[in-house]
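Sequence only, no structure available. Ideas?
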Amino acid sequence: MQKIIIENGLVIDGTGSESKVNQIVVITGQKIEFIGKKSEYQATGDETIIDAQGGTILPGFIDTHVHMMMQFSPVAERLSTPFSFMYYQAAEYLKTTLHAGITSVRDALGADAGVKKAIEDGFISGPRMQLSINALTITGGHGDGYTVSGNVIDIMPSNYPGMPNGLCDGVEEVRKKTREMLRAGAEVIKVHATGGVLSATDHPEFTQFSLEELKVMVEEGHFRKGIKVMAHAQGAEGIKNAVRAGVHSIEHGIFIDDEAIELMLENGTFLVPTLLAPVAVLETAHETGMPETAVQKSKEVIDQHVASFTKAYNAGVKIAMGTDAGVFKHGTNLRELGLMVDAGMSPMESIIASTKTAAECLGWEDRVGTLETGKLADVLVVKGNPLEDIYSLANNDTIQVVIKDGKVEKDIR
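Reply:
I predicted one. Tokens follow.
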């Protein structure tokens, strides 16, 4: 069984404890065997040595909100692209994401069970995946591709084998659609509890689904199969409805108010802020053919988004890193850490949000998220010290070595 020793680097283990010097990380097979002083480990001499070259050794990062099967592009380009081509594009997106230091993701809409299987069986390279399959949405709401011309232009295809359409209205339709997502392999249920930035026929503050409809999703997922619900929720009323219904995580949370924060604290609800999403929409609008409605709504919400994050953070809401990658270019995920620091977190807290807390959000805290003996060996070596320059992580060349499940996936030292 292959053994790897990573040495000569500052160790940030993701648990929140202080960074440590003069320590090594030993990997045996897929798991971490030892972390501690080199003098306390009896080497056999047949280990592969990875020299961190004075950089930093970290757990693999976790992005809890991505769309691996898409990268926003102009409508004309989408309409002229053959259906199956998106799988070949996704293989490149997955590899790029892994090489950016993201070793686990929660796909928030778009990836089917075959994509996850292709990674697990070694056909393609990519992060470990938790799937939502497709999002539940109301007729005329966020996720409904209907346009005022009467045509339907979805961001990405749906209603093909393995990808049920998510439109549903009323308690019994919602119950059936939730079951269809579970049948297709959903490991988390995704719902659009409010309108959004990218959809033309609604607004982020619009409330979607009744409390009763949301409760049915939670009932079908959590109580029947132990599967949680993640809610795209931007307006305050939609956020509160989702939390009251028992939703596990609030995605975006742009218009969080004090009552919503109290509810989230009472229920232990996670916030996945995706601060990068509106920033990137504005940066890439012309290049990607972003609708003018999306540009205007991004301008409207961007400051409020930061203010809501800061309020939730100061109140002690659990925050897990997520980006909405796919709405913008994959592989730029770690810009999110700098944005969280700009909004009030310390660099160490942003790392914890992207490792330990993110793993807890996915229910994978027993396997990944921290450098601890017995956990899966998802380990990074990065240039420099991110506690001194968190923004450096946004440069993929800073990510020198990526190890996932004990396998070296990237090494550019």
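The two ends are 24 Å apart (CA to CA).
Hope that gets you unstuck.
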